[in-house]
Amino acid sequence: AAPLLVAADASPLAPVSAHLAGVTTMTADFAQTDRTGKTVEGKLLLKRPGHIRFQYAKGVPLLIVGDGKALTMIDYSVRQVSRWPVGDSPLSILTNPKADLARFAKIAPSADPDLLMVEARDPKHPEFGTITIAFSKQGSAPGGLMMEGWSVFDAQGNRSTVRLSNQRFNVAISDEAFRWNDPRPKGPRG
């Protein structure tokens, strides 16, 4: 009876939870494609809990940083800074080690048996969008899964896709990596 009980309790999300639990840090190269088909590249740094950095390639004046409290997008070309709680982003599935996957994620269909697709959305906040994360089965990666990338659909129906390569797990990443320079003029702000 015990094996049946264990099998009944096994969640389809268990491998994803095992992967995420096994990742304290990750570095990767990324290629991000927006809704128009334009692709930009850069370096991703992830340090759980709450820290993420998308350092775009030279010549791309954008930076996205999660410092544990807020997710900040900095557009250096127009000196604009936008911030929102890191938990209010579809990326929170990656940054929050205490996230209850069963509450907001499900396995999505995949034509490739070696690809595990996870779709996550906060049902209480559909305006935050939906993220679909692709994992390939790879025994040497944490939990036997390699995060390959994700697609995000925002509330306006726009899609952006991030593909990862050269993933490295549980390497040292300094907290300094999650700081950024404020491009806004100094002085009083109204």
What are its keywords?
190 residues, eleven-stranded antiparallel β-sheet, mainly beta
Structure in a nutshell:
With 190 residues, this protein is mainly β.
Class from secondary-structure proportions? mainly beta
Strand order of the largest sheet: 6-5-4-3-2-1-11-10-9-8-7
How many H/I helices? 4
| β-strand amount | 35-45%
Largest sheet: number of strands, sense, barrel closure: 11 strands, antiparallel
Name the helix and strand elements from N-terminus to C-terminus, one letter apiece. HHEEEEEEHHEEEEE
Q: Name the helicity range.
A: 10-25%
- Overall, the morphology is globular
Indicate the mean pLDDT: 86
Explain the overall architecture.
The chain has 190 residues and is mainly β. Helices cover 13% and strands 43% of the residues. It contains four helices and eleven strands. The protein has an eleven-stranded antiparallel sheet with strand order 6-5-4-3-2-1-11-10-9-8-7. A hairpin with a 5-residue loop joins β10 and β11. The longest helix is centred in the N-terminal third of the chain and has 8 residues. The radius of gyration is 18 Å and the shape is globular. 25% of the residues are buried. The N terminus is likely disordered.
